[in-house]
Fold this sequence. Notes:
Helix content is 66%, strand content 10%. By secondary structure, the protein is mainly alpha-helical. It has a single domain (27-111), classed as HUPs (Rossmann fold). It has a two-stranded parallel ribbon with strand order 1-2. The longest helix has 31 residues, at 81-111.
Amino acid sequence: MYNTLFNVHMQAELVLRQKITKGELSMDKKILIAVDDSIHSKNALRYVAGMSAILMDLNFTLFHVQPAISQFLLDEARISAKANSELKKIIQKNSRTARNMLETYKFQMIKMGIDE
């Protein structure tokens, strides 16, 4: 399966390079990058940094999905002040973690030469 994906990737890259050479790709390109704390996200950033060196007018958007909150806690938060307080703490922690992660990845992209 990996070889199949790699071959598809290589074919797509070849088509992109041919279109760039012919001047067929002149509009802005937007790339959504889903990030988390995995090695795959770090590899994706390195990959798009390489793409930005080849392709012009690339715009990147970093995207992170916060972990789901337990339905039990959501239900309990409606009837219990203590559970509601815990829920607020979890939401704040998840938001803080997500913001920090996105800022870290943004800084890494800038260090790799991608304009802000």
